[in-house]
Design goal:
The protein has eight helices and 14 strands. Strands 1, 2, 5, 6, 7, 8, 10, 11 and 13 form a nine-stranded mixed sheet that branches. A three-stranded mixed sheet has the order 3-4-12, with no helix packed on it. 42% of the residues are buried. α2 packs across α4 and α7 crosses α8. It has one domain. It is of the alpha+beta class.
């Protein structure tokens, strides 16, 4: 029942009126790309366990892109991508922008392209150039890096080619019982004046942007602070975790065909917020897969 109520609340955020810009004041476009990395033999990103080697796929990884431009000044634009990765390294962004500029010139630059990881801990590693990340994912694999660059760029290209007049709406709400502070003892060491600024020890706020055109709603970007670690350290399957599950569930519910509706469940400020509410590496589900589903719904 709780999962159904949460889904209904999110649907309400999507369909109910909210603050909106003037009618069709923007150009908006959406695009997606499959970014699923090597499913076998590569250490998974995030937990830093050499024995956590990929053995298959639970949920495929995707990049979900939106391009937003001022209708009257279309060169003023932003490309935002939420992607089922653990983190984004600057070489990845540099390479994506370089590929976009080879196609569109200076239309897309480092100051108007945002690539945001969902922070899933169940994606293949090996795409960081920096040695500082070697302990998290086991090494650097150029083929994986190059494939990610191509896929991320193709998602933005698809959104660029999809640009059409549209409206942007924003709404916000609260989500209860979706996560707990995994380091409450440490949190309580913060100064009392700091803690007094907040009602709880986690951020329960959810923010949502909805994109609408003449044909109806075409997508959304949702921000909520929750670590995608429902698929825990003993997991061996590639997964978008609860954010990837939420995206797929929403897209299947609101899109007649793949790509019709793009639902990006992006990351906010997850800090120490864990979906494993029992604080023993387990959550409300009987398995990590079930916890992923519960948190996604």
């Amino acid at each position: 029942m709780r999962r159904i109520q949460q889904l209904l609340c999110l649907l309400a955020l999507v369909v109910l009126p909210a603050w909106a810009a003037d009618e069709h004041n923007y150009l908006v476009g959406r695009g997606t790309a499959d970014v699923t990395g090597p499913a076998l033999g590569v250490q998974l990103w995030g937990f830093g366990r050499p024995d956590q080697i990929g053995e298959g796929i639970h949920i495929r990884q995707h990049a979900r892109a939106f391009v937003i431009a001022q209708r009257d000044v279309p060169q003023q634009r932003l490309a935002f991508v939420s992607v089922d990765l653990g983190s984004i390294e600057h070489h990845l962004t540099l390479a994506v922008v370089e590929q976009l500029q080879s196609r569109y010139g200076e239309t897309y630059r480092l100051d108007n392209v945002i690539i945001s990881a969902t922070h899933t801990h169940a994606c293949p590693g090996g795409y960081w150039h920096s040695r500082s990340d070697a302990g998290l994912d086991g090494g650097f694999y150029p083929e994986h890096f190059d494939a990610l660059v191509d896929s991320l760029a193709s998602a933005i290209v698809a959104a660029h080619e999809d640009l059409a007049p549209g409206t942007i709406q924003i709404n916000a709400g609260r989500v209860e019982n979706a996560g707990v502070n995994r380091s409450r003892v440490a949190y309580l060491e913060n100064p009392a004046a700091e803690r007094a600024r907040y009602l709880e020890d986690t951020n329960k706020g959810m923010t949502l942007l909805k994109f609408t055109r003449d044909e109806g709603a075409i997508g959304l970007i949702n921000w909520y602070a929750l670590h995608p670690t429902a698929m825990n350290y003993y997991n061996r399957l590639i997964s978008g975790d609860h954010k990837g599950y939420a995206s797929l569930t929403m897209e299947q519910a609101l899109g007649a065909r793949p790509g019709d509706f793009v639902a990006a469940f992006a990351q906010a400020d997850p800090g120490d917020v864990t979906p494993n509410t029992n604080l023993d590496n387990t959550g409300p589900g009987a398995t990590d897969v079930e916890t992923t589903q519960i948190m996604g719904e």
